[in-house]
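User: Fold both of these, please.

Assistant: Here is the first one.
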Amino acid sequence: MEYLSAFSKEPYKLYINGSFVPSDSGEIIEMRNPATGELLAKAYQGNEEDAQMAIFAARKAFDEGPWGEMSGTERGVYLSKAREILASRAESFAKIETADAGKNYPGVLHYEVQQSIDAFDFYAHKARTISGHSMSIDSTCFAYGGWRPYGVVGEILPWNGPLMMGCQKVCAILAAGNTVVIKPPGWASASLLALAEVFHDAGFPAGVINIVTGSGSVVGDAIVRSPLVDMVSMTGSTSTGKEIIRSSADTIKALALELGGKSPNIIFDDVDVESAAKWATQGFTLHSGQVCVSGTRILVQRNIYEHFTKEVSKCCQDFRPGNGFDYEKGVNFNTLIHANHAKEVWQYIKSGKDEGARLICGGEPYTEPELAKGHFVPPTVFADVTPEMTIFKEEIFGPVACITPFDSEKDAITLANMTDYGLAGAVFSTDIKRAHRVAERIRAGQIYINTYFSKGILDVPTSGWKESGLGVAGIYKYMNNKSIFVNLEEHN
């Protein structure tokens, strides 16, 4: 499939105050397909000066422009128009995201792009249904209020799903009535830069949406530290989240952080082992494990332990790595995003071997010359993983599963909660009472029963627990609550 024509022939520019502009420094970076190494496009690299210009534009657009004065219905009209434009360019965006982020084309076209389009639909309607409150305190006092936009929001986006997550978050920000400065990820930023054209063509007022590329340590830090930015939202690693908390201390701005995970997937002995193994395999291999809610700690009841482990190994033999556009040739397993990230994953695999985990499958590089052009890591399964091992405790963010046996329900819950993370988890059992009981005991914000991954990301937003997140989820994380008290007495 031809896909290079979906990319701009000229370097992608920053989008600031309603205009496409080169960066202050003029520095240009290359965008390459992580599966093949081929050059896709180029883009201007932003710096602190660019970030400050974008922040000032967003501040002025909120304080002085029409956006902050619009009704939710009026904001929804803009979102609906942008939705139609994005839908008309669906195939182009699917090609951009597949090539730039190293994904599989059918999944991007039929799921991620459709979810991106749906985000505009969802928040176009949500904008007009933001609720408030009112009540009579007593005969002399009446109170009312509700949710109000923060003002200027800085949104720092991740590289593992920039288009889908970008649309979901930015649409919520805009529906709530905020203006926004977006920092795309350092890797896989092309879809966000192309999305600027969608917002521009939809006629959003100047300064409402600003997109500035650049490193987290420069552009991201400028957004976090600026007193003109009212709120910062970030999806990324827990270590980055901790840096943002420290950097935001001087301005005490509102934060919403969606961070890492090391999610448990509990398999009880009453399941259909073959079916549960397929779900579990999907749970740690989707996008080659580069999904924050991946079920990478598989906890299996002891009397089905060896049977289950063999079935997962069998499932892993069905993957065919390669360029995500070669799906007609059977390719169904994608590359990691970058050589540096792949190096970290291989270090974790070495750690698992060195610390005594039993390697069931994978764990060695592919030997095919074509795959050497990318950053492929085969599905890797370790058994007999104990809580003391590094691979049990730390987020790997690659296609690596750690299988650990348990004996009782109590043991499973204890193991499930033995990490610093609390993002997601799953329970597989035909005993539905037990499944619900265990789901309640897992200390995480998103739990699946007899399935894996959410089917309602927008409809049922969730938050991370422990070191997996900070702040509420959904549209209200981009809003602040306000109450007004009215004195009804005739004489004060």
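And the second sequence with its predicted structure:
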Amino acid sequence: MPMNGSLLAVLATALWLGACANPFSVLAPDAAEVIQSAWYPPVEIPAPRQHYCYRTLGRVDCYRTPMPEQASRRVGSFDDAPAD
């Protein structure tokens, strides 16, 4: 099926425009500007809560405060982010 002139002109124009650079790309912000912009306000992250864990007869129990008298049973401590 032969192509008529107008269809060929539309295809050629589309190819020519597709190969052109975006003239507005100089106005687009770079990654650093986007990160530093005020689009997203800074989020305050609360300090994590500390847990102190001690071995018991059947399991490990964790407490918010350390128990110095039970130091020999201590298996570790960890930070626990508060639930929202």
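The longest strand covers residues 49-55.
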